[in-house]
Design a protein that fits this description.
Blueprint: E1 24-25, E2 32-33, E3 41-45, H1 46-51, E4 67-71, E5 79-83, E6 86-87, E7 99-103, E8 106-108, E9 121-128, E10 142-148, E11 155-163, E12 167-178, E13 182-193, E14 197-199, E15 205-206, E16 209-223, E17 226-239, E18 245-246, E19 250-254, E20 258-263, E21 273-274, E22 284-300, E23 303-314, E24 317-321, E25 331-350, E26 354-374, E27 379-381, E28 384-385, E29 388-410, E30 415-438, E31 441-457, E32 460-468, E33 471-482, E34 502-515, E35 520-537, E36 540-541, E37 551-552, E38 555-574, E39 577-592, E40 611-622, E41 628-638, E42 641-642, E43 652-653, E44 656-666, E45 672-679, E46 687-693, E47 699-704, E48 709-717
Parallel strand pairs: 7-10, 14-21, 19-27
Antiparallel strand pairs: 1-2, 3-9, 4-5, 5-6, 7-8, 9-10, 11-12, 11-48, 12-13, 13-16, 14-15, 16-17, 17-22, 18-47, 19-20, 22-23, 22-24, 23-25, 24-25, 25-26, 26-29, 27-28, 29-30, 30-31, 30-32, 32-33, 33-34, 34-35, 35-38, 36-37, 38-39, 39-40, 40-41, 41-44, 42-43, 44-45, 45-48, 46-47
Length: 718
Amino acid sequence: MGVPAGGSIAALAEEAANTPEEIIVTARKREESLTDIPAAITALSQEALEDLGASGLSDISGFAPNLTIVAGSAQSNAASIFIRGIGQRDSLQTFEQGVGMYVDGVYYSRMQGSMMRLFDVERIEVLRGPQGTLYGKNTIGGAVNIVTRDPFEAGGRAEIEYGAYDLKSGSFYGAFPVGDASAISLAARYVNRDGYYTDAFNGTEYHDDNVFSGRIKLATRPSDSLTLTFAADLMDIDVGQYLGRAESHLFVVDLVNGPTVVRDAPGPFDGKTMASSIDPDNGQSNTHWGLSFTAEWDLSENSKLTSITSYRHMNPVQWLDADGSEFEIGDVWATWVHEQMSEELQLSTEGAHWDAIFGAFFMTEKSVAVQESFLNGYILAAGEQVGFTQPGHDTQKVKNIALFGHANIELGERTTLSLGARWSQDDKDFERVSETTTGGVITGVFEFEGSGKWSAFTPSGTLDFRLSETSHIYARIARGFRSGGFNGRMFSAADAEPFEPEYVWSYEAGLKGRVMDGRVTYGITGFFNDYTNYQARVAVAIDRDDQAAGFNFPTINAAKLEIYGAEFEVKAEMDALTLWANVGLLSASYKEFLDDQRDRTDQEPIRAPDVTLSGGILYEVDLDANGIVGLSADVRYVGAYYTSVDNSEFLYEDGYALVGAHARWVDADETWYARAGVKNLFDAIYQVDAFEFRTLGNAQTGFYGEPRTWYIAVGRTF
């Protein structure tokens, strides 16, 4: 059985014992005790994920302090991750993530295809705060490190699942020896489910699921000092639209009659019905696959060389209804091909009173994208559509290189100093050709070619002082960096200005420890982030008094952003009963943010709730020859936050609570098991993301989280 928790409370003890088992993580690219590591880290095991009913990455949202994960930018397979109010909500290939995502050491550079299905996962580690040393660029908010299972650990399981909205799922994982020094693991999961929401006009279902994902790993040990692992993974997605809802009134521009409101603000969402002008057969698909090769060579008793080589490829095709209505005010079709190659070398070594890691990283990316915006219902003449579209084609090439090092130095029996530094450089080439077509005639062509080079030095330092054998305090300072880039929505020179990199200095202090013979673990963290050049995509009308004159969607840098808060985590294991709780407090606001048309100073950045709470209980009952039953319940509360840069009253969530209840039975031989549960028990309706294009017919589109669902699953281990 398993329970989630955060930081020092974040994993599962495999079984009750007098002294709970220590949790080992590799978040700092070395094996360390989760309780003893001087950093804000959360870890969730596979069994803990199952006790939450977690089938995808978004299901862990809220189970670490100040963490939210949702499907971003109207795409069901794009993971938009925010930690302590920092992340990225726009999935265009020209925008970098604010939280880095890694799977077995491989960096996933884009949001698309990163909403993983979780079946062969050993654990998920969430690192809060900038990780500019060991993880590098685009980890300014933190990092999510996913570790899949080791093929040398033989065994496996198969499972079938059924649930709400005609959910049907089948999963398999198996690890098998191959000869005396090799092993292979196979993992596969298929999920099919009807949509949560229904079109009020034509009955089309939205937010369905139809995904196959798989992974194969082959590991071999040619000698006692060398381990080689080859992995290949695939995720294939073919679903309908991931649709939002028009939250405010919508208007169109009639060249004869002037602006005309075509839809009033609808009021609160009923949790059931939406509307779209896009053909029901037009949805979203993505084939995302990758290869990796990892070599681990023990050079001596105290040193090891690791090489991680990877290639990733994906081809998303998607329809997006930006206005979330039955009117064709802002419909978008987009497709692109993305290729990524990377190589990372790590040399780890240690002495009597120190250990260190030195490394180098190299990555290239190429993205070729085609997109077309359909605004035929926005520009009219005496009530008749004029026909207004904006096709675009762009190519981006990125090269990133980095050198890094990190060392832990014992200054005495109780004091350890950790020092790290990374130098990163991004080279980007971007080309774009876009058109404006009115009435079937090309009325404007815009071409752009640009190059940019951005580099950063991101040091870190941590002082850790051990108060006793079971508790310690630490203080940390670190610098984070997110690369600059080019606006992938440019249609004129007004949109073409490159945006600059973001930088943050983060200051953090914490207290972590264990009491009651290790049965109770706890962590307390306080942090302050001094942010500059925060990247924000805004909407600007060329002429406020003449909406037909056009609009721009530039990405600009907010001069200064301030973020501070605190986090508390606790877990108590008392024989058959386990309790855990997390609290995250956050204050985030712009201290200086101006553009050509408004002053956003003192407004809040998006997805920065003032409080996040989560907690749970697990009680296990030993039925002797009939096995073990575990009953668990969990609750997540997320405080108020905006989903729009402009802090629109319509794109605002005033807080919500999600309650889950789960049960699991394992037979006495630990061979057969069954699990069942309910998520969002009280069917809360809550807004998680938004499209904000106010200069385009006042489009303000909200996206909502999952309604109440239930599931039941049966499986067999071997």
